[in-house]
Amino acid sequence: MDSEAYGRFRAWGRAMIHDGHADEIYQTSTMGALLDGLYDGDVTIAELLRHGNFGLGTFNHLDGEMVVLGGTCHHLRADGSARVAEPTDLTPFATVTWFRPETTLRVTDPIDRKDLLDRIDRALPTTNLTAAVHVTGHFDAVETRTVMEQKPPYPPLTKATEGQAVTTFRDVDGDLAGFRSPAYEQGISVPGYHLHFLTADRDHGGHDLDFTLVEGEVRVATETELHLSLPRTAAFANANLSPDNIAGQIRQTEGG
């Protein structure tokens, strides 16, 4: 860690102490369980939102993508449409936090996904903690995909995500929301960046694969605690949560 990065880390640490609490991520189930085809969870959206106002995930039966912004849970469907989720909807995998950004970056010139994420990495106090990331602005293009609802017996995620339609939104205002997780969380979460997109009118969105941001703002919060809530189901108890080549499976299913 160079001196500049160390200075950012110390400043962040002082802020956390002064704040009097450590920010927490709440997650239900694990990425390993999702890879094994565990698409039925027992956590309602109402319960999920008691643990955070920002995040992402999916819905039971793998019925689309989830993005949580400002305490509202949005259900992104396979056709690219979006609606507000019902409080009684269930999720097999989701991650939320109370979003309290400590770092803000302004973007005034067009920048692609790789370069923006590299810039965020450089601004973080450390990459050994999970960061909640919110990008809002005007995009030249956002390439997305959305998982399709599955029926039992469920296939593994690598099969369920084959041949998905890709939707590209062009010249659009919107939000990217998600997390940057450390490599050591592999199998629990998605290592690296995992982001979902929602248009500014809240009518469309999907799982981010690529984008070019024309101008906008990035806000980042570094989290220090993980509350992992594991499913109370027989399927989870009997699942293979340590599959072969888990890193490759996550790259294949999550893309981007």
UniProtKB/TrEMBL annotation:
Organism domain of life: Bacteria
Family matches, as SUPFAM superfamilies: AF0104/ALDC/Ptd012-like
Main EC class the enzyme belongs to: lyase
Single Gene Ontology BP annotation: acetoin biosynthetic process
UniProt entry keywords in alphabetical sequence: Acetoin biosynthesis, Decarboxylase, Lyase
Catalytic activity: (2S)-2-acetolactate + H(+) = (R)-acetoin + CO2
EC number(s) from the headed UniProt entry: 4.1.1.5
GO MF term list: acetolactate decarboxylase activity
Metabolic or biological pathway, per its Swiss-Prot or TrEMBL entry: Polyol metabolism; (R,R)-butane-2,3-diol biosynthesis; (R,R)-butane-2,3-diol from pyruvate: step 2/3
Family named by the database record: Belongs to the alpha-acetolactate decarboxylase family.
Protein name (Swiss-Prot/TrEMBL): Alpha-acetolactate decarboxylase
Natural source organism: Asanoa ishikariensis
